[in-house]
Amino acid sequence: MKTFTYAAVSPPGHGTPAAAFGKHVIRMMASNTGGTLGMLEAIVPPGEGPPLHVHEREDEFFRVLSGCFGFWCAGDYVELAEGGCIALPRGVPHRFRNIGETEGCLMVVVTPGGFENFFPIIELCKPETPEQIASVAMDFGLTFLPDDDRKVA
User: Fold this and answer.
1) Model's pTM, two decimal places?
2) Average pLDDT over every residue of 10-24
């Protein structure tokens, strides 16, 4: 990790769009923060969210910018509306889902940074099979787990 000695800024309306696994906007890259963090916005349609998965390298922090989301982590479940925050530790299976009736938006911070590159890489590679997706995910220390059939009540 490089030294982080200057302000990293992402003005309103700026960012790099990535359309892999839904809509994302990369707001801050690890390369802008000395590797300290990466930041992105995830725009999530109703009923959508990633499958159960584990990050081996980074912790994740989520802030609900709009909508209502359910988060599962280590057997716990919590619902958060606009303004709510949750921090999820690396190495622990987790998932989230938009449980609202409208599109929702999350601010996601990963630390250390680097994982924010996953979505642009997936968009570029266009993997077509679960095995190809898993291969790219493995390069980012990400493992998708079998569906645990947990449904939002």
Assistant:
1) 0.89
2) 90
